[in-house]
Design a protein that fits this description.
Rossmann fold; alpha/beta; seven-stranded mixed sheet
Length: 231
């Protein structure tokens, strides 16, 4: 299998209010369940936090926050118990209506419009940091540096990323038959090329003796990684 190849994604360069950006984000909302990511995160939360949600949670590269705000009410039907949610993105587009719904369910959401490097310099410790379709934007040296910083901020980190391989390549080409926008079609193709497989993320994580790592393929299109600090 060929090495990772990074190319710019169009959505990242568009203002959040751009019609093409809005169309592509609507595509992503449709694709999350089809890719199995909604179910993946739901099962993961139910297994890792069976009694109550983490006291604080950061969603890095949150975009419109749709995936997390879809999963959390299902994973925690009794509400957020005052858990703090931080939606971090360079151009966040989390709707006010979504934030209000979370507040009514006893979550405490905060949207942080910030570049990752700026945010992480002053980020406070948090119980959980997660990302969905975000890490593949970075080359390995930057990921190694990012993981070093994240490992000092949280005892739990989890990420769902594109699986680099034949299935993902074919799947990205088939999205046109679902009526996806041209931005989505382009970005899906390049995201697979920049995706991960095997234990590529584990190889970048620091201080391996202090952490329990899990990295695996889930379904046809998703590569999952989780790092939990040893007690």
């Amino acid at each position: 299998m060929s090495a990772r190849r990074l190319s710019p994604e169009i959505l990242d360069s568009l203002p959040s209010s751009d019609p093409s950006a809005l169309a592509s984000r609507r595509d992503l909302q449709r694709l999350h369940p089809l890719l199995g990511q909604t179910h993946l995160w739901l099962r993961w939360f139910q297994k890792r936090y069976p009694d109550r949600p983490p006291a604080s949670l950061v969603d890095l590269g949150c975009g419109d926050g749709h995936l997390l705000t879809t999963v959390l009410p299902k994973a925690f039907p009794n509400g957020g118990h005052g858990s703090r949610l931080f939606f971090v993105d360079r151009q966040p587009s989390v709707p006010d209506s979504t934030l209000e719904l979370l507040r009514r369910q006893n979550w405490l959401p905060t949207v942080i419009p910030s570049d990752l490097k700026e945010w992480i310099r002053s980020a406070p410790p948090t119980e959980l940091i997660l990302t969905n379709l975000f890490l593949h934007h970075f080359p390995d040296p930057e990921l190694r540096d990012l993981f070093q910083k994240i490992s000092n901020l949280t005892p739990m980190f989890a990420a769902a990323e594109p699986l680099r391989g034949f299935a993902g390549t074919i799947g990205s080409r088939l999205l046109r038959f679902l009526g996806c926008h041209s931005v989505t079609l382009h970005d899906a193709r390049v995201s697979v090329q920049a995706g991960f497989r095997d234990h590529e993320l584990s190889a970048l994580w620091p201080n391996l003796s202090d952490w329990s790592l899990a990295e695996c393929r889930i379904g046809l299109f998703t590569h999952f990684f989780c790092a939990e600090k040893a007690q």
